[in-house]
Amino acid sequence: MTERLYYKDSHLAVFDAVVVSCEKIKNGYAVVLDKTAFFPEGGGQLGDTGYLNDIKVFDTHEKNNEVLHYTESEIIVGTVVAGRIDWDRRFRFMQNHSGEHIVSGIINKVTGFNNVGFHLGDEVVTIDFDGEIDAETLAEIELQANEAVYKNVNINTYFPKPEELCNFNYRSKLDITENVRIVEVEGYDTCACCAPHVNKTGEIGIIKILDTMRHRGGVRINMACGYRALDDYNKKYSNIAAISASLSAKQHETAAAVERVKKELSDLKLTCSALRRELIAFKAAELVETQGNMIIFEDSLEPADLRELVNVGVTKCNGVCAAFTGNDKTGYSYVIGSNIIDLRKASKEINSAIEGRGGGQSGMIQGSCKAAKAVIEEYFASFGI
Ligand SMILES: [Zn+2]
Predict the structure, then answer these.
(1) What is the pLDDT of residues 288-332, one digit of tens each?
(2) pLDDT by residue (tens digit) across 60-103?
(3) If you measure from the C-alpha of residue 222 to the centroid of ligand 1, how many angstroms do you get, rounded to a whole number?
(4) DSSP state, 164?
């Protein structure tokens, strides 16, 4: 069985080992070593990545009590390899996993709720609890968790004998009593866990609860610790700095500034729509009585505006009133109305002539078309006559 070096020293990033077996698998090879610092996926934490000599280890899993290093190429059994784990990634995992234990322990003490789901991925950390927690309580829990960091207390691990287990009052109790590993954050939490942790809470850095959502009768918490929290801060800082510069507002006053801009925008929309209505009324009043079909082209009107125009247009002609907005490049939106011709019946022929699609009622159809202005004008000059 592989000797698990990460249990003795969670900060061991390089080590030498001998290849015990190497099996071909679907997407590479599964290498077993006599000893390893690579942590295999488990307890909600992803497996380590890194190198054996210069061969990439893209994942580590546990199977039948063995640690399988998934490599891109074969390594001959008996080879002595220099193992190197991706320490930056692993340390970030440890910061977030140890931080999760602290938060889960405090939540358990404060609310009595249990951690019923934990996922520590490459980007996010989520923890699920079996009860809802209000924002005020969560803020207090976050503060206590960060106090645990500032106190820089020890994180100890134990492999108690089955008869000694009753001496530990710990979370995540499983039915098993053999090989139970206990992780203790002094004064804050005791929990069964198989993953490597930081040695002292000071290594975790800031513990930040990012957001929460209701989940299966409880709450799901998204959080970030240490370097990940710093990355998150940096991303948010550059975002807020850009918003602040763009709105000429102090960074801590950007939310109020955005509200002001939204209000201005909504007022402008109201003014704009009132002006449009006036404009359309003027345009409609200017339509001249026409014998036959009336064809209208406007640069940039809304379909609703076109309908208004056509409603008036049909009363001033004795064919169809066809109104278009757009241009030859992007195509046109159209509304066509008539008091005389059944446009529902004629729509297929019209669409075919102007490369359009659309439909409607017998008195009015609307849609879009790709034909050029000249083609449309020529078509409607003789349509229905
Ligand atoms: Zn754990």
Answers:
(1) 999 999 999 998 888 899 999 999 999 999 999 999 999 999 999
(2) 999 998 999 999 999 999 999 999 999 999 999 999 999 999 99
(3) 16
(4) G
Residues 336 and 204 in one domain: no
Distance CA 141, CA 268 (A): 44
Quick one: 77 and 106 in the same domain? Answer: no
- Which pTM value belongs to this model? 0.79
Decide if 153 is inside a domain: yes
Alpha-carbon span 34 to 274, nearest angstrom? 79
Q: Tell whether 145 and 225 lie within a shared domain.
A: yes
CA 198 to centroid of ligand 1, rounded, Å: 12
- Beta strands 321-327; 294-298: pairing state: parallel
Q: Are residues 95 and 230 in the same domain?
A: yes
| Ligand 1 centroid distance, CA of 72 (Å) | 29
- For residues 60 and 95, state if they share a domain: no
Rounded CA gap, 318 and 332, in Å? 24
Do 263 and 307 belong together in one domain? no
Measured in angstroms, how far is the CA atom of residue 97 from the centroid of ligand 1?
A: 6
Q: Which of 54, 85, 116 is the last residue of a domain?
A: 85
Q: In this structure, what CATH number is given to the domain that contains residue 24?
A: 2.40.30.130
Measure 246 CA to ligand 1 centroid, in angstroms: 43
Centroid of ligand 1 to alpha carbon of 94 (angstroms)? 9
In the chain, how many domains are there?
A: 4
Q: Please compute, for residue 99, the number of CA atoms within 13 A of its CA located in the half-sphere on the CB side.
A: 33
**What is the three-class DSSP state of 376?**
helix
CA 174 – ligand 1 centroid, Å: 13
Distance (angstroms) between ligand 1 centre and the Cα of 99 equals 10
**How does DSSP assign 66-109, residue by residue?**
EEEEEESS---TT-EEEEEE-HHHHHHHHHHHHHHHHHHHHHHH
Range of the domain at 33: 3-85
Q: How far is the CA of 27 from the centre of ligand 1 (A)?
A: 29
